[in-house]
Amino acid sequence: MAQYDYDLFTIGAGSGGVRASRMSASFGAKVAVAEERYLGGTCVNVGCIPKKLLVYASHFSEDFSDAAGYGWTVGERSVDWRKLIANKDREISRLNGVYRNILSDNGVEIIEGHAEIVDPHTVTVDGNRHTAKYILVAVGSWPVVPKIPGAEHAITSNEAFHLDSLPEKVIIVGGGYIGVEFAGILHGLGAHTTQLYRGELFLRGFDDDIRQTLAEEMRKRGIDLRFNRDIKRIDKAGDILRATLDDGQTIETDRILYATGRVPLTGNLGLDRAGVQLKENGAVVVDEYSKSSVDNIYAIGDCTDRMMLTPVAIAEGMAVANTLFNNKPTRPGYLNVPTAVFSTPNCGTVGLTEREARQRNFQVDIYRSSFRPLKHTLTGRDERTMMKLVVDGATDRVLGCHMVGPDAGEITQGLAVALNCGATKAQFDATIGIHPTAAEEFVTMRAKVT
Ligand code: NDP
What we know:
Largest sheet: 7 strands, mixed
Structural class: alpha/beta
Helix content: 25-40%
CATH topology of the largest domain: FAD/NAD(P)-binding domain
Number of domains: 3
Distance between the termini: 69 Å
Radius of gyration: 24 Å
CATH superfamily of the largest domain: FAD/NAD(P)-binding domain
CATH class of the largest domain: Alpha Beta
Mean pLDDT: 98
Oligomer: single chain
Bound molecules: NADPH dihydro-nicotinamide-adenine-dinucleotide phosphate
CATH architecture of the largest domain: 3-Layer(bba) Sandwich
């Protein structure tokens, strides 16, 4: 008789947990996955996918205006928020089903309910005990709202996806991915949008040219961006929320959306009981193979707070499956991880920022281009696209690529391949462009700006 019920027991059926579970099963392991909320996790239910659908929805307002320059007459327009949310929810339900099938088709048992670790080889789900050789913690993260007076009146991205109506006025707090993405979405759909960020310039950690260009583009569109500003308290009077800012000003609004980061969702899991070491913010401490301080307990994705990105969680899940059940000990790579912010317009980035390259004492050469996209020569829209290459002058290697403009995410993906191959600026220059595209600018920047 087998010593354990399962070879692998995964807690959390998000992007990382599902990938690790199904790959492990395909390598011959007997696998169960416990999920207490929704199949597909944050990405599918209240993250990447519904967000991108709302981003598409929000872009139509610009497209309708831009159409006039191309000879189109567009009639009266309005957005039906409830219909948009209902259609989005239908697609999410379909995806939940796809995830269910992926797991069951690969022979993974799905156990619905809250899992707790009793000891390093035992998990309970709603009172039922299951034993496993390995346990994988893939429980994700959850938005946090700072504890200010009236914080209970604020919402997070979790609720923003299910609002009954589109707010007429909204304040967004936070200058990270979620803040700038929702500012573009809600403004594009017609809400009067104010975004507050506590520091000098939002998107800390991104290249400064991305940060500045995006701020300019958002302001041109009419988003009320306020930096060095925060909310001190929130008061509610009927349906109206009054935000008192740290400079004493008050703003009345319908909704206040906090996008001030996410924390690992590792409470109530019994991790401490099993002896799993956690960081102060609750993140599971793991080694390069995603192994925790307990030999047979692994952790991947947001709950380890390495890089909170879906494709990274998937890579970590894949690596765990290979390590444990495919005889291929694998460390996921974190070099040149490309990322996009689906703001309006988009940002795309891979590799080092100019600031990071200088801090690491590279002999930095910068190539930068800023231009009006061809499309807008007829629409008259005052929009600029910015592209930038950070190059090591000593070796000619391209260290970083940064862009603000339409389809920046799509364009950056291919550049990430080039950077992973160690491409030089001369190789970028020797590559023939595709004309006329914005992307060709990355292979035609000839003059160093610094
Ligand atoms: P981020 O960590 O990206 O940004 C949080 C923002 O809130 C920062 O501007 C931060 O300021 C600010 N902030 C933090 N604490 C406070 C506070 N107490 N008061 C006021 N402001 C505060 O978190 P998000 O919530 O935007 O997103 C969470 C994670 O999800 C991201 O890190 C990202 O990895 C992932 N994500 C990825 C997406 C993508 O790939 N397109 C899309 C959405 C999310 P400061 O900079 O000063 O610390």
